[in-house]
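Replying to the earlier thread about multi-chain prediction with a worked example.

Input:
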Amino acid sequence: MFDEVAQNYDRTNSLLSFGQDRRWRRRMVNALALEPGMKVADIAAGTAVSTKELAATGAWCVAADFSLGMLRAGAATVSQSMVAADALALPFAGSAFDAVTISFGLRNVVDTAGALREFARVTRPGGQLLVCEFSQPYRPFRWGYHFHLRRILPVIAAKFSSSPEAYSYLRESIGAWPDQKKLAATIAAAGWTDVTWRNMTFGVVALHHAVRTGEPAGPAIPLADGQG
Ligand SMILES: C[S@@+](CC[C@H](N)C(=O)[O-])C[C@H]1O[C@@H](n2cnc3c(N)ncnc32)[C@H](O)[C@@H]1O
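Result:
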């Protein structure tokens, strides 16, 4: 599905969010307080639009996604490393990163808790997690938001996306996604502590931040016979 929407993905996103996506990404980067030299894995990075924003801080960033179509669509504009990888089995060593980020991606991964545990594995103790995802807007705005999802989003998607059906999935997956508090509990149960969240655009999007505690993770990926 993501291969199919890859070509017009960034432009359609900006249209659907009325340009808010750029502001959400900037706030995501600010929430991490990254420093030059830090290592960041941006998971489900798609065209790496989020990775570029993270790398502007001077941190070393890698974009990982399992859609080659998305990675290819962004490749020409990106100087960061790109890796074809499944969020549930990342090809990275344990404790390799100072931070793991995932923007508008966790909702799409089939096993949310499994992905969060995998992110904890590749993050060093004391390292950070940042999840930027659609969430539950506050009550007075909820109706308008759901009207946008039901009525406006399909019209924009039909005009500008290469696969309008994928945007029906978007609407359904947002509807089925846990609210801020429930997602925080899932994160806390997956090897993270100090979980906090911040709402953006009346709660349409939430940034969940957490810290990795405990001992460094064990060996990352078992080596196949004969390797190492
Ligand atoms: C909505 S896009 C988000 C892209 C980008 N992070 C952004 O902020 O625009 C969701 C991405 O999640 C990726 N994805 C979904 N499940 C995945 C998985 N298990 N492993 C890696 N990537 C995954 C899709 O390929 C897609 O590129």
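The chain has one domain: 2-213.

Feel free to reuse this layout for your own posts.
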